[in-house]
Amino acid sequence: MPKREKELTIFEALRESHEKQRAFSEKLIQTSGDTTERRELFELLKNELFAHAVAEDRFLYIPLMMSDAGLNITRHALSEHHEMDELLEKLTETEFSNSGWLAIAKKLSEVVHHHLQEEEHSFFQQAGKILADDQKKELAQKYQTEYTKYLNKDKDSLT
Length: 159
Prior knowledge:
By secondary structure, the chain is mostly helical. It has a single domain (10-152), classed as Four Helix Bundle (Hemerythrin (Met), subunit A) (Up-down Bundle). It contains six helices and no strands. This is Hemerythrin-like domain-containing protein.
């Protein structure tokens, strides 16, 4: 493993995925109709959100929930993950050519951007006070391994 990765904190590792989520969601809402570009961007965003959420839940939220101070902030973040999952499911069930598809994609993009903004500007600061420095680096390594494992995994195969 490159030295740089070993020194990342969980927050730095998460921000790398956040940048991809922002880029994919912004590009997705610029598409129209049932095109290859829309289908590919949707798959990229869906895979990114899924791998990120699985790994983040396991290696940031669950450790934080072990402390009383982390409970409330974690519950709020998990509810936003649930909202994103529901919007992704709606998009998956809606025809790409349906005029309502873009409205749902825009709502998803708004929720993603809101969640990332909140995490980076509030949640991370609060979580940073709860987690020890060595824990932040250890969680980053575990997060990256889990994230990579789930990045292109079929979500339906996990049931």
